[in-house]
Amino acid sequence: VEVSGSRVHLTGKEYQMLELLSLRKGTTLTKEMFLNHLYGGMDEPELKIIDVFICKLRKKLANASGGQNYIETVWGRGYSLHDGMVEMRAMAG
């Protein structure tokens, strides 16, 4: 993907999470929603793994954008992508 003109390498799971956040910009997504999107109910890991993925994704996005935080934590509920802040563009190759 490309963020602020910089190419960002994401793992498959990170990309899927950013994709889901982008599709639901401005809405709060629960950890359960992420697990269902990533694993489809099959061999799901612990909920805590979502926090780990979000942490890694935030770092990569921040590094590419000069420290900008795109993903908001909604305490006790989940995560939300700030409306209008990230534009995903898949990179070929």
- How many separate helices? 3
Question: What is the CATH architecture term?
Answer: Orthogonal Bundle
Mean pLDDT score? 85
What string gives the helices and strands in order?
EEHHHEE
Rg, rounded, reads 13 Å
* Classification by helices and strands: alpha+beta
Helix content: 40-55%
Keywords: DNA-binding, Phosphoprotein, Transcription, Transcription regulation, Two-component regulatory system
Protein name: Winged helix-turn-helix domain-containing protein
Domain OmpR/PhoB-type: 1-83
GO molecular function: DNA binding
Task: Characterise the protein shown here.
The protein has 93 residues and is an alpha+beta fold. It has a single domain, classed as Orthogonal Bundle (Arc Repressor Mutant, subunit A). It is 42% helix and 13% strand. A two-stranded antiparallel sheet has the order 1-2. It has a two-stranded antiparallel sheet with strand order 3-4. Strand 1 and strand 2 form a beta hairpin. Helix 1 packs across helix 3. It starts with a strand and ends in a 12-residue tail after the last strand. The mean pLDDT is 85.
